[in-house]
Design goal:
Length: about 350
């Protein structure tokens, strides 16, 4: 398959924050948005059953500031996925993403996530069913393979099936999902990442948009991947070191960042937090996503300790966050890296 024309401008996927269970909830995404206007944000994975039968406002609600935002779905029944996707679009999501990469036991038991790498035709049917009922982009996030699969054949076959079904964009986690004998935590580091496999897929697909995910920690790495591919998706590093996102707009999109520091990010996030507190929200549910701020600065540990001690109280006010920020030194410049001879 060569030189497939991309269905949309690929720069919309140049940088995205990965969907992460228990982390990328609406408060996390609202915080990440104040750090970057251009990053594409993804929801936590939501199963079709939860959407169809559960509390949709709790599961799918989000703040308007979060756009562009994608809903990641977990499921393997084409009809149920189509119904859940339609509901997601009615809520205002800008993209529907199908999870073909999560290796957890719960996901395997439900016959979705990474185990679907073994059923490429079914994944194609799922994509086609979603495409038939929504007009927003439909995308897939997958692995390079699972368990004993040959990564050349497995990834090419899946890519061909979903592209033929109308998939608009493919995100590839450049590590095999090992479903037998490894825990999901162990699978974060074992087996090793294979970025070259994703590069080979891109070379085979020509202009079709492909992004890479897995182990990306710096903006230098992001820029290196974007030189070869159409985008990068960053997960744990964006969460644990959110100030990384300050480099996204200037370095990947040539635009000024919306704020210049973690301090300004806190100030920009405060109006959102105040609205949430006024409507009955809890401070801890929002500041827990900010604990990675100020890495390396004097006072960063005190900042985290103050929030961990005081923000968990049920009626904790916004002043708790302000008091925590006051513990961090503003008069600090990181030392330049040591260059070895």
């Amino acid at each position: 398959m060569q030189n497939i024309s991309p269905p949309l401008a690929t720069d919309v996927w140049r940088f995205s924050v990965a969907p992460m269970m228990d982390w990328t909830d609406r408060h996390c995404r609202a915080f990440h948005r104040v750090l970057s206007r251009r990053a594409r944000l993804y929801s936590e994975m939501v199963t079709t059953g939860a959407i169809i039968h559960g509390d949709r406002q709790r599961l799918l609600g989000f703040d308007a500031s979060e756009h562009p935002i994608a809903l990641q779905l977990g499921g393997s029944d084409p009809h149920a996925l189509a119904g859940a996707a339609r509901i997601g679009v009615d809520f205002g999501y800008d993209e529907i993403n199908l999870n073909v990469g999560c290796p957890s036991d719960r996901v395997q038991d439900g016959r979705f996530g990474a185990c679907l790498m073994r059923e490429p035709q079914l994944v194609g049917d799922c994509v086609a069913a979603i495409k038939a009922v929504v007009e927003v982009p439909v995308t897939v996030k997958c692995r390079i393979g699972v368990d004993e699969q040959d990564i050349e054949e497995a990834l090419d076959t899946l890519a061909d099936r979903v592209i033929a079904a109308g998939c608009d964009h493919l995100v590839v986690h450049a590590r095999k999902a090992w479903l037998k004998g490894l825990s999901p935590k162990e699978n974060r580091d074992i087996p090793p990442l294979d970025y070259s496999r994703v590069y080979r897929l891109k070379q085979r697909l020509g202009t079709y948009p492909v992004a890479i995910n897995g182990g990306i920690r710096t903006m230098d790495e992001c820029q290196a991947h974007v030189a070869e591919l159409d985008g990068v998706m960053v997960g744990r590093e964006a969460y644990h070191n959110p100030e990384l996102l300050l480099g996204v707009d200037p370095l990947l999109f040539g635009q000024e960042a919306p704020v210049s520091s973690g301090f300004e990010a806190v100030e920009a996030y405060e109006p959102y937090m105040a609205r949430q507190l006024e409507s009955g929200g809890h401070l801890h549910s929002m500041v827990r996503h900010m604990l990675g701020l100020f890495q390396g600065r004097p006072g960063a540990r005190a900042f985290r300790r103050h929030l961990s001690t005081h923000a968990v109280k049920r009626d904790a006010p916004l002043s708790v966050l302000r008091d925590a920020v006051a513990l961090v030194s503003r008069d600090w410049t990181p030392e330049p890296p040591v260059v070895k001879a």
